[in-house]
Amino acid sequence: MVYITSWDEFVERSVQLFRADPDSTRYVMKYRHCDGKLVLKVTDNRECLKFKTDQAQEAKKMEKLNNIFFTLMARGPEVDLSEVTGKEQTDVQPTKRGRGRKQ
Amino acid sequence: MVLLQLDPFLNELTSMFERSTEAGSVWVTLKRSSLKSKVVRNKMATAGEAIEYRCLIRATNGKKTISTSVGPKDHQRFQASYATILKAHMTSLKKRERKDKKKSSESDKREGTSKRPKKS
């Protein structure tokens, strides 16, 4: 199990891993409230990247990563990621509902 | 394995978090899937149809597993709700006390919070 210490490296490598093999890459998150620990794992069944933390600020970063993965997985690995903000750039399937319902 | 719709899944996920506060973990897995078998996929590929992919989300507390699948149309709404749930429940993580990196010589992941108790 490879534990990555740098958050940015973890993000970059996991996105690369996903883009290389989107059908077998999965992202797992484990949270233990009693220990106050959060562990993230991205694997394609050949290589495995892990990240663990007990910091609240890392949880915020994880939320951004969640958004990235959701976008990648739902829309496709060729999606142009602009780090969460500009998600409406993909013109594969323009969502009609998404415009007025942003909360 | 229980496959649910989006909103019931979110409700169940919330109660799973609430129930595991004292002991136990919550695992959430995200994977891309077309929810069709390989045979069907190959057929669709040869027929020239585009395969629609969805994001499969599974959650478990070790005993019970729930899952749901999110398509590109619902993913933004799901993402927002999911982020809210996580923020509401991940309260036991440590808040960072020192802002500049010079003072905290070791990395942030040290558990030595007893040196300067600000919350005493």
Descriptive notes:
The complex is a heterodimer of chains A (103) and B (120). The model of chain A is unreliable at 84-95 (pLDDT under 50). In chain A, helix 1 runs parallel beside helix 2 (56-75). In chain A, strands 1-4-3-2 form a 4-stranded mixed sheet, covered by helices on one side. The termini of chain A are far apart. Chain A is globular and about 35 Å long. Chain A has helices at 7-20, 56-75; strands at 2-3, 26-32, 37-43, 48-53. Chain A has 2 helices and 4 strands. Chain A is α+β, with helices and mostly antiparallel strands and 103 residues long. With 120 residues, chain B is of the alpha+beta class. Helix content of chain B is 32%, strand content 20%. A 4-stranded mixed sheet of chain B has the order 1-4-3-2, covered by helices on one side. Residues 103-114 of chain B have low confidence and may be disordered. The A-B interface holds A 5, 22-23, 25-36, 38, 53-59, 62-63, 66-67, 69-76, 87, 92-93, 95, 97-98, 101-103 and B 17, 20-33, 53-55, 70-73, 75-80, 82-83, 86-87, 89-96, 107-109, 111. Strand 2 (26-32) of chain A pairs antiparallel with strand 2 of chain B, so a sheet runs across the interface. Chain A: It comes from Stylosanthes scabra. Chain A: InterPro entries: Signal_recog_particle_SRP9/14 (IPR009018), SRP9 (IPR008832), SRP9-like (IPR039914), SRP9_dom (IPR039432). Chain A: It is found in: Cytoplasm. Chain A: Its main location: cytoplasm. Chain A: Keywords: Cytoplasm, Ribonucleoprotein, RNA-binding, Signal recognition particle.
